[in-house]
Design brief:
This is Acyl-CoA thioesterase-like N-terminal HotDog domain-containing protein. It comes from Bordetella genomosp. 8. Pfam families: 4HBT_3 (PF13622). Residues 237-314 form the Acyl-CoA thioesterase-like N-terminal HotDog domain. With 321 residues, the chain is α+β, with helices and mostly antiparallel strands. The protein folds into 2 domains: 42-166, Hotdog Thioesterase (Thiol Ester Dehydrase, Chain A, Roll); 213-320, Roll (Thiol Ester Dehydrase, Chain A). It has helices at 16-31, 35-39, 69-86, 185-204, 207-212, 242-257; strands at 42-46, 52-56, 92-103, 112-121, 129-138, 141-154, 214-219, 222-228, 261-270, 278-288, 292-301, 306-316. Strands 1-2-4-5-6-3-9-12-11-10-8-7 form a 12-stranded antiparallel beta sheet. A hairpin with a 2-residue loop joins strand 5 (129-138) and strand 6. The longest helix is centred in the middle third of the chain and has 20 residues, at 185-204. The N and C termini lie far apart (41 Å).
């Protein structure tokens, strides 16, 4: 099945996923944020130092009804950064240093909302490291809470300044971009990637896995994963977005333990930018008991440079209350 336009056809005749892709590309032009956040319809509903509200209006379900790992990572990362951005000039960049998330296991019902607040800087540190915390809810039920630390950096020249604006896909009636004539090479690469992921998932139904591009396989004592880099998962400076890295780590850890286990908490330390043509992940099972397990995941570049270290706990799935 293909999704290219026939001569004279209108973009509105495309598959809804491809229409959503074109809207995300347009929002990236207008708002300056990365494709992943725009595709997931992340909306900055209120941005203040004391009480920011960020929501995700696109579908974010995984197969088990919980929040998809990449959607969780992207939303948490953006929500934790929002109150810090409110305290800083617009032309600054935040690099995630660490993130901790505790999940309740409650089902994810869109829209997911995240309330976050800024808690000052790490005292005595040579660089400015900003601290924030977040709580996440789906349909009024708490699905997670967490904290993060961000390094405050100068924005590289030529990098777009983001506009933290509300998004409502239901009210987005702007004309769709024409993929045949109105996309630049980078935007066309994103569109074609989504189109191929959609085509490849027609039979298997695993669109989101193919969209992000994670490939993970179990091995003795753990799992190995690979992720091809590309503009669909990049942040504003071209590195793999921090929430996507977290989703890649979760997918690899899940492959190590199997579908009977779900992640209950994660501690992630960001070591260096996710760059290069391909990232690799190695997950090791540190402990696997009757009802709880622990995994350690290391993500590296194809040159072997360490990018992310993750320590996660998992719970054996049981009957939902």
């Amino acid at each position: 099945m293909t999704h290219t336009l026939t001569p004279g056809a209108r973009p509105s005749a495309l598959d809804p996923i491809l229409q959503r892709t074109l809207r995300a590309i347009r929002r990236r032009r207008e708002h300056g944020f990365h494709f992943a956040g725009n595709f997931l319809a992340v909306s900055f509903d209120r941005v203040t130092v004391e009480d920011s509200m960020v929501s995700m209006k696109a579908d974010c379900h995984a197969a088990d009804g919980a929040i998809d790992g990449t959607a969780l990572g992207v939303l948490a990362d953006l929500a934790l950064a929002a109150p810090v951005r409110a305290a800083l000039p617009a032309d600054t960049r935040l690099a995630t240093v660490n993130m901790q998330l505790q999940l309740t296991g409650a089902p994810c019902l869109a829209p997911v909302t995240a309330r976050s607040s800024f808690h000052g800087y790490v005292h005595g540190a040579a660089g400015r490291q900003a601290i924030s915390r977040v709580t996440l809810h789906g349909a009024g039920r708490e699905i997670g809470l967490g904290t993060a630390t961000f390094m405050v950096l100068d924005l590289p020249a030529g990098t777009p300044i983001p506009f933290l604006t509300p998004v409502d896909p239901a009210q987005d009636d702007a004309p769709l971009l024409d993929p045949d004539t109105e996309l630049n090479p980078g935007e066309l690469a994103v569109y074609e990637h989504v189109r191929m992921a959609l085509d490849d998932s027609q039979a298997s139904g695993d669109f989101h896995e193919r969209l992000w591009g994670y490939r993970a396989h179990a091995r003795k004592g753990g799992a190995t994963g690979t992720l091809a880099n590309g503009p669909h998962i990049g942040n504003r400076v071209g590195h793999v977005q921090g929430g996507v890295l977290l989703g890649f780590a979760q997918t690899t850890a899940q492959a190590a333990l199997g579908e009977d286990w779900s992640m209950s908490s994660v501690t992630a330390t960001y070591v260096s930018p996710g760059e290069g043509r391909e990232l690799k992940a190695e997950a090791d099972i540190v402990h696997q008991g009757r009802t709880t397990a622990v995994t350690r995941v290391a993500i590296t570049t194809d040159a072997g440079k360490r990018v992310l270290e993750v320590l996660a706990t998992h719970s054996l799935r049981g009957a939902r209350p």
